[in-house]
Design goal:
The protein is of the alpha/beta class. It has a domain of 57 residues. The chain is 53% helix and 13% strand. It contains 18 helices and 13 strands. The chain is globular.
């Protein structure tokens, strides 16, 4: 098969990390040029075809559709497969994903398409439950029918745990209003909720004890979260982050072009889309038949690739705490990506699912690179939020004028006065309360906003 010998584009370079491009893959890349840097080659051909068909004839954004499908695959797999790195390190496939864009950028349609199989099966479960309840006799001594849910939109944390218990394979959380969901977590009373969700992301056992409520526990949580939000809103939320690693656990889909597009006069090909929904249904049906968790391990080559990749993260992480926070979570996401890709691609190719191999790991590393770039984009959006006359805006102006990552409180106070932003006492107050710099020793501060 022919290949592209001299690919100079950034997208091409990313794809070439997995070997030379075939002409088919080159076609995919060329269609993406200037629109997306999502590595479509991680998916089977029928998913690539679906994404491009919806992009060309359905006004769908490539990034939104790709990331939505990836999250749907992760949500479907749930606890049916885990990846064991070593005796103390096991990862489930859960992902927390946010589609970021402008208002009216058609963020909801890709989610609807990606999760259609899940929602259709949920309708079936709802009908079965309603029928069982209608025929239930409380005096018969039989156990009351329980409602099985694959996804939920806005449960309380306690309800989420109880719903998950009815479906041990996992839950998909799809908040109707992702803004409200985030607000509930980072608001004045949200710290405890935030820590509870951090435990869920880790896959750690959950135990809730309430005086006037039944205790709830979950030994193996697996909850994928997906939603959409406007770019300025998520940036303002991130600016209020209490730096406990919550936002670093979120994977952001941020397109190269955040703009509304003209509606095409052509419609997506029915066969392509129906084939996609049919295969996603087959995958979901196969997973729901499993009643146990199967642990996969890495092949020797996949393990070598993983170790080499995470070791590349050590030096930049040691130099910058913000980078360290992002990469430490992406190290774990690499394993989750590899697990999802190995299980789903093996199923669609009718291959046995035995271990996570070299191909899945190479593709997982591509995904890590994509989401790393988007995490940096979000941090730049946060800085734009501060570009005003607010307290943090004033701090940012002074830090930029100083122009160094490390500076003294004396330098800050002098520069603030020189710029006419604040006198000595107020300048010291601004520096003491800012989130844009932190004290590394007495009188010395360090910032990450100049990266």
């Amino acid at each position: 098969m022919k290949s592209i010998e001299n690919d100079k584009t950034e997208l091409g370079k990313a794809h070439l990390t997995s070997g030379k491009l075939s002409l088919e893959e080159a076609n995919v890349r060329l269609k993406q040029a200037g629109e997306s840097e999502f590595p479509l080659c991680i998916f089977p051909r029928f998913i690539q075809d679906t994404i491009l068909e919806l992009y060309e004839n359905g006004n769908y954004n490539i990034d939104y559709t790709s990331v939505s499908i990836l999250t749907a695959l992760a949500g479907i797999i749930g606890n049916s497969y885990h990846l064991r790195k070593h005796i103390e390190w096991v990862e489930n496939p859960s992902m927390w994903v946010v589609l970021v864009g402008k208002s009216g950028q058609n963020k909801s349609a890709p989610l609807k398409t990606a999760f259609k199989a899940v929602k259709n099966l949920q309708k079936q479960y709802d009908q079965e439950y309603e029928s069982a309840i209608a025929n239930y006799n409380p005096d018969s001594g039989e156990k009351k029918p329980s409602k099985k849910k694959l996804y939920s939109t806005d449960p309380t944390f306690e309800a989420l745990i109880n719903i998950h218990k009815q479906n041990p394979n996992g839950m998909i959380l799809m908040p109707d209003e992702f803004k409200s969901f985030i607000l509930n977590l980072i608001g004045y009373s949200g710290t405890s909720k935030q820590s509870q969700f951090l435990s869920i992301w880790d896959g750690a056992p959950i135990s809730l004890d309430r005086k006037e409520a039944e205790s709830s526990s979950l030994s193996m949580p697996c909850v994928s979260i997906v939603g959409s939000i406007q770019d300025d809103v998520i940036a303002s939320f991130k600016a209020k982050d209490i730096k406990d690693g919550f936002f670093e656990r979120i994977l952001f889909a941020i397109p190269l072009k955040m703009e509304k597009k003209y509606v095409k006069r052509t419609n997506p090909n029915d066969y392509t889309i129906e084939q996609f929904h049919s295969k996603m249904k087959d995958f979901l049906d196969a997973v729901t038949q499993k009643n146990n968790t199967e642990e996969l391990v890495l092949s020797d080559m996949a393990d070598e690739l993983f170790i080499n990749e995470v070791n590349k993260h050590v030096t930049p992480s040691n130099k910058d705490s913000m980078i360290s926070g992002i990469l430490s979570k992406l190290d774990r996401y690499i394993l989750r990506f590899a697990l999802v890709l190995e299980v789903s691609n093996s199923f669609f190719d009718n291959l046995p699912i035995e271990r996570v191999g070299e191909s899945a790991m190479k593709k997982a590393i591509m995904l890590k690179d994509y989401f790393y770039v988007n995490a940096l984009k979000l941090n730049n959006m946060v800085l734009n939020v501060y570009e005003d006359n607010s307290k943090e805006g004033k701090v940012l102006q002074v830090i930029k004028k100083i122009g160094k990552k490390e500076f003294t409180n004396k330098e800050f106070i002098q520069m603030a006065g020189h710029m006419g932003i604040a006198k000595e006492s107020y300048a010291y107050q601004l520096l003491s309360n800012t989130k844009l710099a932190y004290k590394v020793q007495k009188g010395v501060y360090e910032t990450e906003v100049l990266n």
